[in-house]
Every structure is written in C-alpha cells, then in structure tokens.
TrEMBL record:
It is found in: Cell membrane. This is Predicted exporter. It comes from Desulfuromusa kysingii. It is a multi-pass membrane protein. The chain crosses the membrane at residues 264-281, 288-308, 314-337, 357-376, 382-406, 427-447, 652-671, 678-698, 704-726, 738-757, 763-787. Residues 195-403, 654-787 form the Membrane transport protein MMPL domain. Its main location: membrane. Gene3D superfamilies: Multidrug efflux transporter AcrB transmembrane domain (1.20.1640.10).
C-alpha cells in the first residue's frame, strides 16, 4: 500500500488545489445531472435482448388492448341507456384528436359502409365444408318452404319495404352464414350493440376505443393524455362516470410515485445519516465523510447516464442506498485516522486501513459486476451505477479524505476495543451466549427459507393505485376478459403463407371446441388457395342442385304469392364472376381497426394474430400441438410468468455463484488462510440466510429486485467480515468495530428510508436488504470476535 502513502505525501501540501478540483468536478456533475432524461416506468426492469422471455414479452405487447385506449363509461341504475349513449358520443367528440386517434364508440360507422350489401357476394369463397353441409340441408323442400314463409311474414311487417331487396337477393338467408363469421372479430365477450354503440348486457355501461401516438413509457405524454381526458369528462352529466384504462395510466402513476419516493427517500436517508453523525461522531470534520457519498452519487449518475439513455427512475432512487454503501469506506478511514493507534503515526494508520478498504471495495465491485450479464437493462444500470459510486468513494476515501480529517484521538477507539475484548475474556459465558443466539437465529432462518417462493408477476413490480385496480376489475366484470388473453402468432415471409398458418391454428382450435371464445381473421380472410377451394366446392354444389332448387323456389314462391321473377337477383348473384376477399377489401368495408389489430407487418414479413383464452390446460395442450409447426408461436401471460420465474431463479443461482466465487478468490488472496476466510464469510452468509428466512417467515416472495438485494448483502457483508478479521490480525488499532457499527447503521438508515417508499420496486429492495444487513452487522461485530481464541 506504498502507493497510498506516496499519494498522501504528494497531496498533503496541495489540499487547496485538491479541494478546488473536487468543487469543479461537482459543478460539472451537477450541470450534467440537470440535463438527465429520467424514465419513471418499470420498463427498465423488463427483459431485453434475445432471450425467450424477452421475445415473449415483446410479443405480448402486440395484444390489441395492450396498445389501445379503453374508456369505460358507467351509468347509475336510474340512467336510461339512451342517455348513456348520448353522453358517450358527447365524450367521444370532446376528446382531442391529436391525442385520441379514431375514437370508436361502436360499429355504427359500419352501417354506412358497403359491408352488409356486399358481404353476400363473397359467400362462395368464404363457406367451408361445414357451411356447405348446412346449405345443402337448407335446400330441402321443407326448409325452402319455411324460409319463404318467414320472408313473407317479414314483408308484411312495417319494415317490409326496407327488407324487400334483401329478401329478393337472399330468400334462403344464406348470407347469415357469412355474417356469423364477423363474430370472430369481436374481442369483447360481453357486448351487445344498440344504436350502433357498444353496450353492456345490463345496459348501464358503454365503451370508447381509441389509439394514441403517445408511447406507454412516456410519462410526460401520459400526463397530457390523462389531463385531456379529465377535461373532456367534465361535461358528462351527473350519474355517469368514465375511466380511461391503458398502460399510460399505470406509467403516470408509477412516474409520480417514483418521483415522490425519490424525494422522500433521499431526504429521510440524508437527514438520518446526518443525525447519526451528530450523535456518534460529534465533529465538524465528520462533515467531509458525510459529503463523500453525495459526491459519489453525483458521479455515479453522470457515469450511468453516459452509458444508458434514458436513465431509469428506479436507478436514481437507488441513490439513497448508495449513500449507505459508499459511506462505509469513508467511515473506516475516518475512524482509523481519527481514533486509531499505532507507533509509526498517521501514514502507517492510513497504510493499514487501506488494505481492508481496498479489498472490501473489490469484493463489492465483484458482487455487482455479475449483474452486468443480466438480461434486464435495469439490473445492468444498477450495476454500473453502484460500481461507479463505489470506485468514486474508494478514491475519495483513500486519496482525498485523509487530508481533511484532523488530528488523531486514540483513546476513544482503543478503550472501546479493549472493553469488548475484556468482556469476552472476563465473561466466557457471554461468548457462548452470543454463539448460541447466533446459531438459533441461523437455524430458524434456514427452516423459514424453505417456504420462500419466486413471484415473477410483472404487475407486482409496478405501483398499482387502488382506483386503477378497481377500474380494471370493473371493466373485466362488465365486458369479460378483454385484456388478458393468450396470443397465437402465425408468421411467414409472405401474406399467403401467414394466412395458411392462421387457418391451421383455427382448425386446431376448432378441434378443442374453443371457437366461441376465439378472435381471429381466419373465417373472414382465408388464404387465396382456400378461397379457390371453397369456390370450387360451392360451384360443384350448385351444379348439382341449381335446377332443382330453382323449380322449388318458383313453385313455393307461387304458393306464398311471390312473382316468378321475384328471386332473379339471387340467381344472378350465383352466376357472378369470381370475387376473392383481400385485406384491402376489409378496409373498404370499415374493418380497418380489426385488421390492424390482427394483421401485422414487419421487416421479416407478415404476422396474423389469434386471441385465445389464457387457460392453463388449454395453453399446455396447444403448446404441444404447435411445438412442431414452424412459424406458429404461442404466447401466454401465465406461461410468461412461469418462464420469468424460471429465469429469475436461474439468474439468481448464476449471480450468487459468480459473486460467491469472485468473493472467495479475493478473500483467499487477502488472508491466505482458510479459518480467516471462513470468519470473513460469516456476516455475508448469515445476512443472506436471514434475508431468505425473514422473507419466508413474513410471507414475502422473491422477485427481480430481491436479486439486487442479495448482491448488495454479499458486497456489504463481506466488507464487514474483512474489516473485523483484519482488525484481529493487524497490530494497528483501527477502531474497526466502531466503524462497522456506524457504517451498518448508515446502511440501515438508507434502506429504512426505502421501506417508506410506496413503489414496490424500491420498497422491496429496502425491506429485504434491511433484513440481511440487520443480521450481517451483529454477526461481524459480535460473532466473529466470539469465534476467536481467548486473548491474554
């Protein structure tokens, strides 16, 4: 450690320049921080890259209602449904067009489209084998008689004049087979149509669907969107309420919560550590130790922001934790130089304390470095952030802080160290009592840790305001399962190939008897090859039956008073030239929104999307059915959570193993004796075990953020062990016990502040590390000395 001593001598007469340099760096860092782009969403803690989890997550974002705005209007029971629909249209028209694109309150606009007049023309290419069997049954004499009797009854009704041309064109009501296929485009299970609007079964709720150019991760844009919605809702009459349900509402809620938490956590941790300094250090010189983590956090923000754009708000919130990490190095240097004792003087004390400080920093850096291989960008950000802060704090603690600590006061630390040894030496039973209590705590934690489970539900990682949860629950209860469905993708380089795969999916689902709950384009947009096959089968049927059916229609028509040429439009349609259904035709029919939701085009080609119920048994069966079919991908939120749970478990095992190996190698290099290495590992092993046991006892579940917490405990716990073992090895008295106690308290204050956070991510890190550090500090200060042989 001669380099540290050499630097100390060089800087000793240049403290003014050193301080000026620090102030300049701090000013530059502050200017850079003021320009940071902060993303206050959970997206940074979601997988990216090319992993299966990342791939499935990206596909889940293609679900129609995951990308759309859903406005749910609810009326009090005394409100008439007509008044509700009037209010719905008023709200739709009041929504600003630049934020709410194409708001749709129902299929009313479709009544003016050529869909219903032209759909029958495409009957020959859309009817499948089952439809032809049904048509053949309707061509029997008894069926024809019943249909014409029903047609006559309709013509005698007041609306008969309107239906006249429809009956002439389709006396046997064959077009109903095609109209039924439109139901496969309906993604809202519990909906009925009234006056061209989406209306609930009970008549007390309506819907408005819209797109928006605002990204769901854009907190500023989300606020503008929700503010505009609130203004539009002001004109709603009494008794009618509206809720906007989309990812934007969650983004804004998380952004505002993280902002509030950041202010609260930084304030509480900063004030708490400052109070701790006044209570235990009682020196103006300690202010330099207090400023060390603030400077470290500023530099860590600058370094991380240069690496990642934008910076996650969760990473910024982690700054409060960094206060508890980086202050440890300063505290050990401060207590060693302020209260330590050795014969060679201040330089020897600095040289002695630099060894455990350096290795403590290296072990913490090694623990955080394993997060750089994470598939989660947020964990990689936390790794860079922590490592940059630790390196900054290490340099400041060893090169800068020694020049501003002041003269040595050796008696305090010496007496404290001697008192602790004296108590253990004089009262052997106290040593035994400490070890028994420690073993009891460890044993209890080991038993409780067996109940620990992994929860990979992404919603648990975001702040979910009660009002939004209630709104989403009301949406599901009223309209059915709109937003939580499994997705099946049919992907191919060309549209025809994708359509053929989409038909294969439809047939598989038909085999499971699930067509009623399926949303798909397959019935209305078959492949060109299938349409040609349908057309051939249609023509074959009519070649065999046309003459017979023509005679039956004429004779039965005469029976009910129809003219001989009444059904000429029907026969003309049968002989019309070939017409094929195309995506462009569906757009002209007013089905553009449904088409855009279910037909996707990207650089690799085309994707057709099918929505199915997210049921565990169905997903398992379909997963087996589609496993050998190239181009078909099944994505389920249930299965995604299972995959994410597996990934978390695998990552956790990998991170713990890598961090453990790195720490073990560094400890062997430092102590070179197995007993000393094992003693240094006691705090980290105890801390991790108590964290797991405490979580199991409290019923908490392991999530993405607890992985970070575990790495943090490893880094800090090893630091405590290194200092206590070095404390017993070195001739110099470095006041390590007191430094560990104070540094542990600062860490607990930092994490205690995180426990106050409302955001689950910050709260989760705070609570779990609080459990681990609460066990690691007493283990270092009390248990390691209890394992040492009696000193005389």
């Amino acid at each position: 450690m001669g380099l540290i001593t050499l630097c100390y001598r060089r800087f000793q007469r240049r403290r003014g320049w050193l301080l000026l340099l620090l102030l300049i760096l701090l000013a530059l860092a502050s200017w850079k921080i003021s320009q940071l782009q902060i993303e206050e969403s959970i997206s940074a803690m979601l997988p990216d890259g090319k992993s299966l989890v990342a791939h499935d997550f990206q596909l889940l974002q293609q679900a129609p209602f995951a990308r759309q705005l859903v406005i749910h209007l609810r009326a009090d029971p005394e409100i008439d449904s007509h008044d509700l629909l009037v209010a719905t249209d008023q709200l739709r028209l009041a929504l600003p067009a630049e934020l709410f694109k194409g708001p749709l309150s129902g299929p009313g606009e479709m009544t003016t489209s050529p869909l219903f007049n032209q759909l029958g023309q495409y009957l020959p290419v859309l009817v499948n084998a089952e439809d032809l069997q049904q048509i053949a049954a309707q061509l029997e004499p008894e069926e024809i008689d019943q249909h014409l009797a029903a047609d006559l009854a309709q013509l005698l009704q007041p609306q008969g004049m309107v239906l006249k041309e429809t009956i002439r064109r389709d006396p046997l009501q064959l077009e109903g087979l095609v109209l039924q296929k439109l139901s496969s485009l309906n993604p809202i299970p519990e909906v009925r149509l009234q006056d061209g609007h989406f209306l609930s079964r009970d008549g007390h709720s309506s819907l408005i669907l819209a797109d928006t150019p605002i990204s769901m991760t854009d907190a500023v844009g989300s606020k503008a969107l929700l503010d505009a919605f609130a203004v539009a809702c002001q004109q709603l009459p009494d008794g009618i309420q509206a809720n906007l349900i989309s990812g934007h509402a969650y983004t804004l809620a998380n952004a505002q919560t993280i902002q509030k938490d950041m202010k609260l956590v930084l304030l509480v941790s900063g004030m708490g550590i400052l109070l701790l300094f006044f209570l235990f250090l009682r020196s103006i010189r300690a202010l330099f130790v207090y400023l060390l983590p603030l400077f470290s956090m500023a530099m860590a923000l600058v370094v991380t922001a240069a690496w990642f754009k934008p910076l996650s708000g969760i990473t910024v919130g982690f700054g409060a934790v960094l206060l508890g990490i980086t202050i440890d190095f300063g505290l050990h240097v401060y207590f060693a130089l302020r209260y330590g004792r050795c014969q060679q003087g201040r330089e020897q004390l600095l040289c002695a304390v630099s060894r455990p400080v350096l290795f403590g920093a290296l072990t913490t850096l090694a623990a955080f470095a394993v997060l750089l291989s994470s598939a989660l960008p947020g964990q990689r950000q936390l790794a860079i952030f922590a490592m940059a802060g630790i390196v900054t704090a290490l340099l400041l603690a060893l090169l800068v802080l020694p020049h501003f600590i002041g003269p040595n006061k050796e008696n305090g630390a010496s007496s404290l160290r001697q008192l602790r040894r004296h108590v253990y030496d004089r009262i052997p039973s106290l040593r035994i009592a400490v070890l028994l209590i420690w073993l009891g705590v460890v044993g209890f934690a080991a038993v409780q840790a067996q109940d620990l489970k992994i929860n990979a539900e992404l919603r648990q990682l975001s702040y979910l305001p009660p009002a939004l949860q209630q709104a989403e629950q009301a949406l599901g209860e009223t309209w059915g399962n709109m937003r939580s469905r499994a997705l099946v993708f049919a992907s191919a380089p060309d549209l025809e190939g994708a359509l053929e795969l989409n038909e294969d999916i439809w047939r598989k689902l038909q085999g499971h008897g699930m067509l009623k709950d399926i949303v798909s384009l397959a019935p209305l947009l078959p492949s060109q090859q299938t349409q040609q096959q349908n057309l051939h089968a249609w023509r074959t049927l009519w070649q065999e039956r046309q003459a017979t059916v023509r005679d039956l229609l004429q004779l039965t028509g005469q029976k009910y008073g129809f003219a001989d040429n009444a059904f000429d439009p029907f026969w003309e349609r049968l002989n019309e030239p070939e017409r094929l259904v195309t995506p462009e035709l569906l757009e002209r029919w007013g089905l553009e929104k449904a088409l855009n939701n279910l037909l996707l085009k990207n650089d690799q080609g085309y994707q057709l999307l099918t929505l199915i119920p997210d049921q565990a048994d169905l997903i398992q069966q379909l997963g087996e059915d589609f496993a050998d079919l190239p181009g078909i991908t099944l994505v389920s939120q249930r299965r995604f959570s299972q995959q994410l749970s597996y990934e978390i478990g695998a990552d956790f095992s990998r991170f713990i193993t890598l961090a453990g190996v790195a720490v073990l190698v560094l400890l062997v290099l430092l102590f070179r004796r197995i007993p000393e290495v094992l003693l240094a590992l006691l705090p980290v092993l105890t801390g991790v075990l108590v964290m797991f046991g405490g979580m199991g006892w409290l019923g908490l579940e392991m999530n993405l953020f607890n992985v970070v917490a575990s790495i943090l405990i490893i880094g800090l716990g090893v630091d405590y062990g290194i200092f206590m073992v070095c404390h017993g090895q070195q001739e110099e008295h470095l006041a390590s016990s007191r430094a560990i106690l104070i540094s542990g308290l600062t860490t607990l204050i930092g994490f205690g502040a995180l426990v106050l956070a409302k955001h689950p991510a910050l709260h989760s890190i705070g609570l779990t590390v609080l459990l681990g550090i609460s066990a690691a500090v007493p283990t270092a200060v009390l248990v390691i000395p209890a394992f040492r042989p009696k000193r005389h």
